[in-house]
Amino acid sequence: MNDELLSPSQFADLLGKPPSVSAAWDSFALQVIDPPLHVTTAFADHVLGLHISGSHYLHHNCGGRSAQGRSDPGAVHVYPAGVKATFDASAACRNIVLFIPDAFLSRVIAEHWEADPGKVELICQFLGRDRVIEEIMTRLSLEAKTEAPTVQLYAESACEFLAHHIVHRYSSLSTPPVELS
């Protein structure tokens, strides 16, 4: 890896074969990809990943913190912009990847969370389960295949909600989940 932060299009070039689905909306990009078995990179944007098919053993290192485990469909990954990450997989899989620009997330934090974006940390997540992310990213990948005039509005609204969700669940501003009895 060089020290360059990868944009969504540069990441697609790194894959070896083009994404099966690719969409770029005003602020976001989405790709459905078959990732390489090994990759080391740092993304220019914050990245949400959703494992959608195939099962494999996965080792990752995000910002110097290592973890490993079995990755199956539904596994969610959250990677902050600019953080070096390494992925080593034992077999092929398919993922949906959503790129969220730092400027967009910073605006959400400043305007709606009334916090200094420079003091808010997005926290790496590995092999998590999050039905909100799973449902919205799955729907966005389906919408990306259509050419309906409302797709742009739908995608921007869904991505705005996802930005709030990741700040709420996966940042230094997170609140602990409420236990339902």
Description:
- With 181 residues, the chain is of the alpha+beta class.
- It has one domain (8-170): Jelly Rolls (Sandwich), CATH 2.60.120.10.
- Helices cover 28% and strands 33% of the residues.
- It has helices at 8-14, 102-112, 131-143, 151-170, and strands at 21-24, 29-33, 38-42, 46-53, 56-62, 65-71, 75-79, 84-89, 94-100, 125-129.
- The strands form two sheets. It has a six-stranded antiparallel beta sheet with strand order 1-2-9-4-7-10. A four-stranded antiparallel beta sheet has the order 3-8-5-6, with no helix packed on it.
- Helix 2 crosses helix 4.
- The longest helix has 20 residues, at 151-170.
- The model has no long low-confidence stretch (mean pLDDT 91).
Keywords, separated by commas or semicolons:
single chain; 181 residues; alpha+beta; Jelly Rolls; 6-stranded antiparallel β-sheet; 4-stranded antiparallel β-sheet; 4 helices; 33% strand; globular
Question: Can I get a quick summary?
Answer:
This protein has 181 residues and is of the alpha+beta class. It has helices at 8-14, 102-112, 131-143, 151-170, and strands at residues 21-24, 29-33, 38-42, 46-53, 56-62, 65-71, 75-79, 84-89, 94-100, 125-129. Helices cover 28% and strands 33% of the residues.
